[in-house]
Structures are given as structure tokens and as C-alpha cells.
Design a protein that fits this description.
The protein has 125 residues and is α+β, with helices and mostly antiparallel strands. The chain has helices spanning 26-34, 65-80, 84-94, 98-116; strands spanning 8-15, 38-46, 52-60. Helix 2 (65-80) packs antiparallel against helix 3.
Length: 125
């Protein structure tokens, strides 16, 4: 983010969190937020079963629209289910290029489908 290579960082943890285990590195981002280089946002959302997740997001100054779009994406996925389209949108919001999203989608979705599908049968006539 400091090199302007990625515009958004997202961290999440179960809520309430374990006070003995720091999962989200807020103290490392704090100086950049205080200096105005990063915008910070925090919220807690519940899934369909009521389990709560705390999100802490950081965006480069001027890229804070990504935070709101990301949270809308997550909230919408709670009701409609996560899938390839949401995965691609998440990657784009995080700043990955199309070819990087394509490779990841191929690996996660299409590769998994091939790994679980039966091998083609060979028949001799």
C-alpha cells in the first residue's frame, strides 16, 4: 500500500475477539492512518446464523470507496452465497489485475471442479 501497488487491505476475525491473540495488526497501520496516508474503517457484521465477524479495512487516501464497496460485497454474499463473481470482485477491489484474478479463479473454482470430477472413461469399440 505504501508503494501504491495495492489500494486496500482487509482483515477479519471472529467477534468478540480473543484479547490474548492479536490477529489484526492495527498498531502497524495506526501511524499511517494518523499521517493521513491510509483511511481506516471498522465494522461488525453477522452472518445468516448470527455468527459475528469484525472487519478492519485500510485504503489508500482517495480509495476509500473500495471500503464501502467491499463491505457491500460481503453483506450481499451473506444472503446470496459466495461464488466466482464475488471472488472476482473481491480481487478487483483489493487491487489485483484481471490476469491475476483469472489465474486465481481458475485455480480455486475450475481446478477444484476438475479435481472432483470423475476421469473420462476410455471405451474401445
Amino acid at each position: 500500500m505504501l508503494k501504491d501497488e495495492k489500494p486496500l487491505a482487509v482483515f477479519c476475525e471472529r467477534f468478540p475477539s480473543n484479547p490474548d491473540f492479536e490477529l489484526i495488526p492495527e498498531r502497524f497501520f495506526a501511524p499511517y492512518v494518523e499521517a493521513g496516508l491510509f483511511v481506516a474503517f471498522e465494522c461488525v457484521i453477522a452472518d445468516a446464523r448470527g455468527a459475528k465477524t469484525r472487519f478492519v479495512l485500510y485504503a489508500n487516501e482517495g480509495e476509500d470507496w473500495r471500503i464501502h464497496a467491499y463491505m457491500l460485497l460481503k453483506k450481499t454474499a451473506i444472503f446470496s452465497g459466495w461464488g466466482e463473481g464475488f471472488e472476482r470482485m473481491e480481487g478487483s477491489l483489493l487491487g489485483y489485475e484481471d490476469w491475476q484474478n483469472d489465474a486465481y479463479i481458475e485455480m480455486v473454482f475450475n481446478g477444484r471442479a476438475r479435481a472432483h470430477s470423475p476421469a473420462p472413461s476410455s471405451s474401445t469399440s
